[in-house]
Amino acid sequence: MNPLFLSRVIGHQFNFVNIAWLFGILVIPVIWWLNNKRIFSASLKFSSLNNLKGIKKSRKAKIAGNLQYLFYLGLAFLFVALARPQSGTTREESFSEGVDIALSLDISSSMESVDFKPENRLGAAKKVAKEFVQGRENDRIAFIIFAGQSFTQCPLTMDYGMIINFIDQVKIGQIQDGTAIGLGLSTAVSRLANSKSKSKVVILLTDGVNNAGEIDPLTAAQIAKALNIKVYPIGMGKPGGGLIPIDDPIFGRRYQKADFDIDEPLMRKIADLTGGKYYRATDTDKLEAIFAEINEMEKTKIEVSQFTKYKELAPIFLLLGFILIALYLLLENTTFRKLP
């Protein structure tokens, strides 16, 4: 199993639980206007204030005149506190469980057929396989080759660069010739045998009929079924065979018709037995479309959830409001006290 857990902050929010209390702030200008009209204040009547117009206000008097704004600001903070402001951090948590995939590639001499122009069959298979590897995320991939024998080139890994490097190095003649489909499949299955991933897949690319190896392909398929491994066999080549290049020391390179075909009934049985699907690729475009379809069917499962954690800001505004009003009342009745 190769799960990936990711948590990240995707935004911040600010809101009010009881936003209606904010309208209380609109009362403050009314209180200010009434206060400046002296409606709430005691006053002494003078016959005329004309003689006092030329007298400059002292600094203390100016401060005393503006002291009321402490009260109004404190009152505004109290209304904000009653509206219950909250600051929230929104996080996104995603959990994904990748697919374990084993790529098993036929590198027998028939894969040198040039019916996948401009590449031969092996060249086309390598090109599309590399694109498939590059397009996966959070998936472990193993790479297996087979002809007369079968070998694991790369065990399950998420090091896609290493897998692509191994695919690049593959060439025909690297191992004993033949088409041991059963061995190619069983080796791929063994790479996935100990996997605890919920989704395990073998992609088997071949262009021939099983003619080598000690393991029957259907036996390997039955083992895959027992291990809950799906197999997607892909038959490569046009019906009726293709042209294989032959290097003649006298006449140089020439192309010889090779009559071989794919054991499609066997491929379908393997696919049906394991819950996979059989495909036939007759050119590079078709092969790319097949890999694209498998890529869509075997998507990594991702679960995404969002949650917002809120912090109450009301106590801060409540404290500020009380401090400002208390400071106003203290100064109003001590240092800046007005005498009748």
Task: Report the count of strand segments.
Answer: 11
The SSE order reads EHHHEEHEEHHEHEEEHEHEH
CATH topology of the largest domain: Rossmann fold
Helix content: 25-40%
Alpha carbon gyration radius = 40 Å
Relative strand content: 25-35%
Q: Sketch the major β-sheet.
A: 6 strands, mixed
What class do helices, strands and sheet pairing give? alpha/beta
CATH superfamily of the largest domain: von Willebrand factor, type A domain
Level-2 CATH architecture of the largest domain: 3-Layer(aba) Sandwich
Strands of the widest sheet, in order across it, are: 5-4-3-6-7-10
Number of helices: 10
Global geometry: rod-shaped
- What is the arithmetic mean of pLDDT? 83
Taken together, the total number of domains comes to: 2
Explained architecture:
The protein is α/β, with parallel strands linked by helices. It has two domains: 3-45 and 52-90 and 309-332, no CATH class; 99-299, von Willebrand factor, type A domain (Rossmann fold, 3-Layer(aba) Sandwich). The chain has ten helices and eleven strands. The termini are far apart. 31% of the residues are buried.
Overview features:
alpha/beta; 2 domains; three-stranded antiparallel beta sheet; 11 strands; six-stranded mixed beta sheet; Rossmann fold; single chain; 10 helices
Topology:
Blueprint: E1 3-16, H1 27-36, H2 59-66, H3 68-82, E2 85-97, E3 100-106, H4 121-134, E4 140-146, E5 150-157, H5 160-169, H6 181-192, E6 200-206, H7 217-226, E7 229-236, E8 242-248, E9 252-258, H8 264-274, E10 279-281, H9 284-297, E11 301-312, H10 314-332
Helix pairs in contact: 3-10, 4-5, 4-9, 6-7, 7-8
